[in-house]
Amino acid sequence: MTESERYKELIHLIEHHDWRYYVLADPEIGDEEYDALNREMLEIEKLHPDWITPLSPSMRVGGRPSDEFVTVTHVQPMMSLANTYSIQEVEGFEKRVKQLLDEEIFTFTCEPKIDGVAVSIQYKNGIFSKGATRGDGLQGDDITENLRTIRGLPLRIISGAGKSKDFEIRGEVYLAHEDFSQISRDREDSGMAPFANPRNAAAGSLKLLNPKEVGKRRLRIWVYELIAADEWAGTKHSARLNILEEMRFPVVKTWKVVGNAEQIEEYWKELDSLRESIPYDIDGIVIKINEIKLRETLGTTAKTPRWAIAYKFRARKAITRLISITHQVGRTGAVTPVGELEPVLLAGSTIRRATLHNEEEIKRLGLAPGMDVIIEKAGDVIPKVTGRSENVPAGKYNYPEFCPVCKEPLVKPEEEVIWRCVNISCQAMLKGRLIHFASRQAMDIEGLGQQTVELLADHDLLSDPGDIYSLNYVKIAHLPGFGDLSARKLLQGIEASKQRPLNHLIFGLGIRLVGAGVARTLSKRYGHLDEIADAIVKPELLESIGEIGPKIVGSLVDFFSRPKNLVVIEKLRNAGVNFGIKERSEETNQEPLAGKRVVITGSLTDMTREEASSALRELGARVVSSVSSRTDFVVAGELPGSKVEKAKHLGIKIIEENEFVELLKDQDKR
Prior knowledge:
- It is a single chain.
- By secondary structure, this protein is α+β, with helices and mostly antiparallel strands.
- The protein contains 25 helices and 21 strands.
- Strands 12, 13, 14, 15, 16 and 17 form a six-stranded antiparallel beta sheet that branches. Strands 2-11-10-3-9 form a five-stranded mixed beta sheet. A four-stranded antiparallel beta sheet has the order 5-4-7-8.
- The two termini are about 55 Å apart.
């Protein structure tokens, strides 16, 4: 077998196993064997990049970040459904349909109503072509690259009637419960508010501009509609669902053809009883006329089709006692209140704890330990306290002023609702801070990844970032997974990190609101960590620097005012970590692009548009959105569009991305 033949075989195998795993939920091989196939394919693509096409599995997360979403017009409007909440309303729907169809024979299809995000997807000659959000029903956002990341969605049709055909499908993008729970934990650990429910999380994911980030969210899709003019698509909706399955699209297995409202009610009750065992959110059923031609006869109103309705499930709630309120400290220091509840059965599981989100929410609901409260599951997944039981008066709760773990004072910045611990040595966020400190954008310590950090912390060898530099051969060589070579490599990586630029150290300290861009700004302005610490005496001087606002200043003042943080800084100083150069000249401090007007256009590969803009502002430039005679130069990425043509017409300098990256590197060295 030639290398080219093996490459084609690998693509076929990966497509097959994606279908078995993501669509059928019946994998034939384990993760290791699947990963091995992907690695082999990627190795071949490195040697033969010209073989890569948009259909390669590697391209599912290979799309470049977009500047913005392009608006597309739907071939057929994506209409919303009218909602019903009782069997009487369903019977009314059946009666109206009978009157409009005037003795025509028809049936209904019933399907689960997935609580996700509706999308339309076009295939040309059996190849995935374009995808869009519902938007206003007439127009939506082009999210083609984001949809490409969904493993269960075929990039090409290799079987079934739609092979080499043009057609459109409609589907619902969603998150499984387990994936939503993981995203929620990650966001709370990062100090961000969790998504309200899986649907919001799916919608937010599809609106991310970077497909690689979308790919990390593990989005899934159920396909529920096939739109095609040709006879191959079938004359009944039930036939089209079968055809979609033959084409290897993910279609829910629990759809059913019924004849009347009584049978619809039976299906509704059956599905309602199964909700607890379904690993994703459904909020009712969708009832559709099965015969495609009769749908055309029934037509639509201004907003909804007359041939379909949604029959929603009832909300599920329970009442229980709020025993106490505890507080969890996340990886970034965010303190989240949690209601400890008297155990109660709700939607098939026993609820003992529920998030209370923040102090403002506790006050709004008037909650206090000892009262009876109403709980429900957000999306039937995440337990949430939604209010007090009937006739229970509002209570008062005093939020703690000190960290429940390290006992240091908590901080709540102005205009924020989350209290935080900002003690760099707090054990609740130790591992996360250490991983951040050693990361590539920070101190870039080779060999000190997540597993090694956890191992060292679990053996009480690290209590803060400063302890990294007190590690020695004797302390680590005997640890599980370590030997002579790995121990020496880690120590070499630690030693090399001492010479990282100052901005890397500033970023690595994990000061709240101080990202890589702000760290670079501070480094260029002050040149030495001690000078930054001294500058907090006059915070108004900090605010005079571009990119440094009052919130960032407040965060810096708080960080450098805490004795425990200063102890860590002294450990780093004594270890010989680079703190920068004191007493730099005014010439060095001058911003090299001060007053320059710069436009960024096209897709950048080495950084996001936000990172590029931030870097330019740090150099004193003003980033503007449109090209004019006052523009000093244009940074052009891939597919730059009309702005480059206008710049050429006006004789404005155009800098390619590689030249722009070198410019930033040169400034970093100064």
